[in-house]
Amino acid sequence: MGLNYEKNFLHMEGVNVKELASEFITPFYCYSKKVLLANYGELKKALPRAEICYAVKANSNMAIVKLLAEQGCGADVTSRGELMLALKCGIPAEKIVFNGVGKTINALTLAMQYGVKQINIESEEELDTINQIGIKTLTRANIGIRINPDVDAKTNKKITTGKAENKFGVAWPEALRLYKKAFQMNGVMIKGISIHIGSQIMSLKPFEQAFKKLAKWIDQLEKEHIIIKNIDLGGGLGVVYNYKKDKAVAAKDYAKLIDTYFKRFKKNIIVEPGRRLVANAGVLVSKVLYNKNIGSKKILVIDAGMNDFMRPALYHDAWHEILPCIKWNRPVNKVDIVGDVCESSDIFGRERLLPELKRGEFVAIMGAGAYGSSMSSIYNYHPLAPEVLVEGKVFRVIRRRKTYEEMLDEQLDDIKYGLKK
Known about the structure:
The protein is an alpha/beta fold.
């Protein structure tokens, strides 16, 4: 859709990636508007009556969030900063869901001030805190309780969130007690129930296990005369990273499963996709710095690093296709593609089959639209990679690269602070 070879040159929509790379200092992120909107459209078509709340943590670039807002998309936020970003991008508060185990008082106060759609509570102390804020500010927070269903999402253990040992959510017996407690409070208003079992889920089975439990719990709530309006199913729909092995769950099959378990309740359905909307809409473009050999091992050193794209280093089995920006007719070798950061984990791919690439030539790391720029840092004191959005044959910079002078100016070393006694 967005990325393909035309006359042996890799193109993002109608833009030659090699020419783009020659114009910018690498590395940089490149996104396809067409793919982004198509991904949203696919989900909206499958779930026409659901509230789709984009998980801002996946990619928090304002241009991308604004594009989704223009389509009527809501937001799933996990911090005060993400909440402010969503509001700034034009997403109404009534389309914003606030998640996270460690919401600060400042963040909660702001969310209540604007009247967000639902704050998903994850502990009794959080419930008590929100109630106190509500009483103090004469407001009532719209709340749900996030339930931990103890379901294994069969995904990377670092992005599994619905098992009993994970830090997220509340076990059902405890949650039922909290619902009864919240029902008696003056600073909160019960609006919904929430689950989220993990990310990059490639099968319907974990969803079905969680949905079956959730439907039973909603029945129990209604027997207790605790009536909810919203069923928040979280996110987790996986994407194809490895073209030879992966097969993602179809949006229509996911929608059918939701209908199977929740249509009878006649409640508002909320889903929180992140990766599914933005992952395959973006690539990270990088330049070859050096070829080196260690014994029989061939290594390709590129100018991107784990500071630019953390996923392969953080999730050791994370696979991303890596393509040359020109389809060379050259001998193919098995190489390790590594970054320029001083860490042994800074590896983008091991034993990948690539044509011989020379210094100054370019590669594109696929599926980098999610958890790429949003997780990047200035480790090793590299500037944050710029970002480019392509639409047809035109492009625009949606985050520029800071100069080293600008970075150094941010390091204030001439001001001393002291604590008042």
